[in-house]
Amino acid sequence: MSKHVVILGAGYAGLRALHELQKGDNELKITLVDQNDYHFEATDIHEVAAGIQTSERITYPIKDVVKSACTTFVQGTVETIDSENQLVHLKDQAAISYDYLIVALGYESESFGIPGVEEFSLKMVDIPTSEKVYQHLTEQMEAYKETKDENCLKIVVCGAGFTGIELLGSLHEGKKKLATIAGVEPEKIQLYCVEAVTRLLPMFSEKLGGYGIDHLKKWGVNFLVGKPIKEIKQDTVVYLDNQETNELNELNAKTIIWTTGVSGSHVVGDSGFAAKRGRVMVQSDLTDANHSNVYIIGDCSAVMDKESNRPYPTTAQISLKMGEHAGKNIKAQLKGEPTKEFTFKSLGSVASIGNSHAFGEVGKMEVKGYPASVIKKVIMDRSLFETGGIKEMLAKGRFDFYR
Ligand code: NAD
């Protein structure tokens, strides 16, 4: 009887694994589970939040990549995994049994227990939350017309990590459209970023990170650095202004967006896997330490980088590689062959600041400005190709290289 592989999550890692498993003539039955019936490009959601891209542009239907001869797609929400009985429990649906499981359930916003984050700030983690950010922004612009309250025109991004920086770039680009709604000049819309540490973007050299930050400053973004956020209140960010005196200060704004980092899906810890912030330190072949038929990949997974002696950071790039690797290892297990160790060499990373500026590293080379934005688009197109194939890449890819 053919073995049943269940893949949880249709993000970068899950779809790349699906692609690998659907290849060739394996005697396999595959079930893919996701709460949505679409895949979204998680690296581009800031563009939806800022209103410079529609969600249709960064999503495609999962059915487009499912080969019905071997794969069934189930739209459902995973509640827990019972790894002893090899069952996946879904909300309001029958449980699914598996022979092999790939857990690729992605990430969640991390509040670090800071009071008020859940109630008074906006998350930006998926399509609904990103659309909600843009809807909120347009509502504030409308409100300004009525009230002339300057706080309606203030936007605070909490955290200057990759996500915060890319969001600020897109918000700058989206200002014109928002200003039209409010009936003001774009310069009237004020962007702020509050960040805990003083050394921003530690993955890049100081010079390269500084290039990106300076660019945003030139565009008028106000940075408050070395100011850890202690609480979010209604329309207010409370931050530690002076580390020596413990003096707090407040920044008022009607839009507060929370981008201070992510954790892996809560389902992993809830299911009894040894997770820290939703990430499980997996074996070198990407399986769980206690279950050789359970692969944990993408943002739910932690793999040690032997060079830095720290887990690799979670990126789309490593998720795609893990998906491919897990798929190959399951094929090997089915043939009775040994699994292979996962190895990863980062190709670098590039942060966009708006549509035609970016900065980052490609291999050991630092890139910035317009050429970097072209590289960024090539990276985005490649990841679309790896999950969605040529069809989705041609339909949704970025080919506006020419100014
Ligand atoms: P992050 O952890 O990289 O950055 C979060 C930032 O928030 C940090 O600078 C941190 O110091 C700051 N912060 C944390 N708590 C704070 C507080 N209380 N007050 C103020 N600031 C605070 O998280 P991210 O930007 O969400 O990115 C998550 C992961 O996804 C990272 O691994 C990142 O590299 C990756 N990512 C990659 C890309 C890309 O490759 N283009 C894009 C987006 C995200």
UniProtKB/TrEMBL annotation:
Belongs to the NADH dehydrogenase family. GO terms for molecular function: NAD(P)H dehydrogenase (quinone) activity. The keyword Phosphoprotein does not apply. Keywords: FAD, Flavoprotein, Oxidoreductase. It comes from the Bacteria. InterPro entries: FAD/NAD-bd_sf, FAD/NAD-binding_dom, NADH-Q_oxidoreductase. This is FAD-dependent oxidoreductase. Residues 4-323 form the FAD/NAD(P)-binding domain. SUPFAM superfamilies: FAD/NAD(P)-binding domain. GO terms for biological process: aerobic electron transport chain. Its cofactor is FAD.
